[in-house]
Amino acid sequence: MIEIQNLQKSFGEFRAVDGVSFSVKPGEVLGFLGPNGAGKSTTMRMITGFLTPTGGAVRIAGVDVNVDPISAKKRIGYLPEGAPLYSDMTPRTLLEFIAEAREIPSAERASRIEKIAAKVNITGVLDQQIETLSKGYKRRVGLAQAIIHDPEILILDEPTDGLDPNQKHEVRQLIQEMSKDKVIILSTHILEEVEAVCTRAIIITQGKVVFDGTPSELKGRSPSGRLDDVFREITTGTAPVTA
Ligand SMILES: Nc1ncnc2c1ncn2[C@@H]1O[C@H](COP(=O)(O)OP(=O)(O)OP(=O)(O)O)[C@@H](O)[C@H]1O
Ligand SMILES: [Mg+2]
């Protein structure tokens, strides 16, 4: 469904993404891990066609994102880092706008918005100005706009960042539920999240893939069985600190 081949992105002399290759099949929930500045968001921006690669290619169901960006983007729902939104709109007017842009028939829009709002728990704030919403509610509005067209592919850049523990749990459940018929790539700094929702983990450091395997394979790398030890060892080369 998603094929990434030798993807590269340079900003001037700096290589933010340095030859990343992997493919993702339906039913997979891929967790992107890596230290700050590793190149996770830059890779996601290239997968979603928001950033043009310096080299390499991204294919969505066989279609190169840079050759036919519109047909690729139709299949993708994207929650960008920090969930940027138009803050002077309300969730309802924003979702109406997105629904129209996503070509959802006008007769279906209102009911689709109600359904999505219930899914991400924003029904009570649908008519409140986005600027005045708390961080967690803004994140949930960001999730709503990513899934409103029921895309086959979901790219979620830190979907649970800023959510309270209950909402983290709910969003993880939502991700699990959606994974039945979608391909999902999410990034996170919460290692337990990878165990909780991902079927596969990729660790990126300095623009390169340094681990690609299942969460249990990742855990198995450390004698202590602690994910943060393995993460530290893989990303810094430092021996794990044993508990
Ligand atoms: N437009 C840009 N111009 C210059 N440098 C950039 C640009 N966008 C990203 N970078 C640099 O590329 C590197 C990778 O950034 P990226 O946002 O992909 O990291 P990340 O893995 O998502 O990190 P985080 O965990 O902090 O979100 C960083 O060093 C960043 O400063
Ligand atoms: Mg990022």
Q: Can you walk through the features of this model?
A:
α3 packs across α4 (106-119). The mean pLDDT is 93. The protein is 37% helix and 25% strand. The chain has a six-stranded mixed sheet, with helices on both faces. Strands 2-1-4-5 form a four-stranded antiparallel sheet. The chain has a domain at 1-75 and 186-243: 3-Layer(aba) Sandwich (Rossmann fold), CATH 3.40.50.300. The protein is built from nine helices and ten strands. It has 243 residues and is an alpha/beta fold. The chain binds adenosine-5'-triphosphate (ATP) and magnesium ion. Magnesium ion binds at residues 40-41, 81, 157. Adenosine-5'-triphosphate is lined by residues 11, 16, 34, 36-42, 81.
Please describe the topology of this protein.
Elements: E1 2-11, E2 14-24, E3 29-33, H1 40-47, E4 55-60, E5 63-64, H2 69-74, E6 76-79, H3 91-101, H4 106-119, H5 135-147, E7 153-157, H6 165-178, E8 183-187, H7 191-197, E9 200-205, E10 208-213, H8 215-220, H9 227-236
Parallel strand pairs: 3-8, 3-9, 6-7, 7-8
Antiparallel strand pairs: 1-2, 1-4, 4-5, 9-10
Helix pairs in contact: 3-4
Bound molecules: adenosine-5'-triphosphate and magnesium ion (MG).
